[in-house]
């Protein structure tokens, strides 16, 4: 990414303040694990929240590029925010369990 002065091109946020507020109030994140039904979670906590808008020069995700899970075009990058020089604490969250996929035969 390249840090820039303004958030542009976002379909979800009108400006950097709106994007920053959204993520500040939703600082929980989950990651896929080797167990296909479990996601590990972390919560970012800081008393010095500050983000900067960025332009994405290149992005690739083998997770989101898996068309058996995400049909083409169903997962797209909206924008990028950079947080740097901010003291943070990462606190673990309870793992999230995904419902088992079942198939029905008729």
Task: Characterize the structure shown.
The protein is mainly β and 106 residues long. The chain contains 1 helix and 6 strands; from the N terminus they run E-H-E-E-E-E-E. The chain has one helix spanning 16-24, and strands spanning 2-3, 28-32, 38-45, 52-55, 80-82, 89-97. The strands form 2 sheets. It has a 3-stranded antiparallel β-sheet with strand order 1-4-5, covered by helices on one side. A 3-stranded antiparallel β-sheet has the order 2-3-6, with no helix packed on it. A hairpin with a 5-residue loop joins strand 2 and strand 3 (38-45). The mean pLDDT is 92.
The dominant shape is: globular
Strand line-up in the sheet with most strands: 1-4-5
Q: List unreliable stretches of 5+ residues.
A: none
Radius of gyration: 17 Å
Range of strand content? 25-35%
Helix content: under 10%
The CA-CA distance between the termini, in Å, is 49 Å
Structural class: mainly beta
Count of separate DSSP helical elements: 1
Question: Which whole number gives the mean pLDDT?
Answer: 92
Order of helices and strands: EHEEEEE
Number of E-type strands: 6
Sheet having the most strands: 3 strands, antiparallel
Question: How does the SSE layout of this entry go?
Answer:
Layout: E1 2-3, H1 16-24, E2 28-32, E3 38-45, E4 52-55, E5 80-82, E6 89-97
Antiparallel strand pairs: 1-4, 2-3, 3-6, 4-5
């Amino acid at each position: 990414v390249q840090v820039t002065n303004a958030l542009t091109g976002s379909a979800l946020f009108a400006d950097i303040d709106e994007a920053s507020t959204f993520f500040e109030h939703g600082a929980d994140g989950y990651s896929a694990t080797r167990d296909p039904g479990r996601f590990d979670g972390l919560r970012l906590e800081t008393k010095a929240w500050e983000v900067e808008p960025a332009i994405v020069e290149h992005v690739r995700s083998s997770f989101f590029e898996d068309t058996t899970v995400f049909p083409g075009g169903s997962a797209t990058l909206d924008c990028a925010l950079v947080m740097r020089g901010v003291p943070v604490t990462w606190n673990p969250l309870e793992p999230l369990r995904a419902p088992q996929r079942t198939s029905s035969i008729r």
